[in-house]
Write a structure and sequence with these properties.
This protein is 36% helix and 19% strand. It has eight helices and eight strands. An eight-stranded mixed β-sheet has the order 1-2-4-3-5-6-7-8, with helices on both faces. Helix 2 packs parallel to helix 8. The longest helix has 30 residues. Keywords: Hydrolase, Membrane, Transmembrane, Transmembrane helix. InterPro entries: AB_hydrolase_fold (IPR029058). One of its GO terms (molecular function) is hydrolase activity.
Amino acid sequence: MHKFFRTLKKVLFAIILILIVCISSGYIYLYKMPKGPEVTDPKAIENGSDSFVMYSYEHSSRKSIKVWTYKPENWKNRDRILFVMHGGGRNADDYLDAWKEIAEINNVLIIAPEFENKFSKYITNDYQEGNLYTFFGSKNPEEEWAYQVIENIFDHLKKTNNITNKNYDIFGHSAGGQFVHRMILLMPEARIENAIAANAGFYTLPTEDLEYPYGLKDTPVTDTSLKKSFNKKMIILLGENDNDPELGTFRETELAMQQGRHRLERGSNFFKAASRSAKRKSWDLHWKIDTIQDVGHNYREMSSAAVKYLDI
């Protein structure tokens, strides 16, 4: 019997040791080792399709990001700039392609950052949830939030292209729609003029009663910052036929399902929750909601429909 317990202790010790090594190795690989493609020399972006790679963070070379661009030939300084946020497939080049013709017709400079992650099927915290927390639950500094990366890209563009624009617009679809509405909630000081959150899978409700990413509990959001968020111009853009939870990656946790049975219902309920919150606090709400007829979970069709909300 004593021999059995000694053997059991050894087995348990070995299992715990293996878990510690795996967790430590995973943390070091994900959050300490350098990540991303090789940084390119800073230069002005060319007409048509182009790309560059820059460091994601202002004071760190630990992580880099590839940024795809499309610049119409007639685009000039002070013309409109639009960030396009890809879905969960992290396919920024495909999203850029969906916007090329729209960009030419409307003379808009398209900026499509690619939040590359080979584990994107399992990890969502680094992109659509803003990188507020690591995969292991520890907090990241605000300068490493994914939303700050957008601001850093905008500064890089201004510096390398002699651009004097003070603001930019942002469109996101699916996971990108999650990214956009959370950026508005968590970083109202961002230089966004018009935001379009399209076909998001689930939402961060403007309440402190729920843990992030379902609510704002344990985030830096205050009444003062939330009021500023409500003052930003944002469109919750939904597809009339985006009512099939089998399409794409659809979160089915208990808290997500409480938001609705499908994306169309969840978007409507999110806007209603924001409206109730604003009314309760006697605040203005500059957000709007719209539904595109005969369109489902399709980023190309939603992109074509979104351009009219950019005040072009």
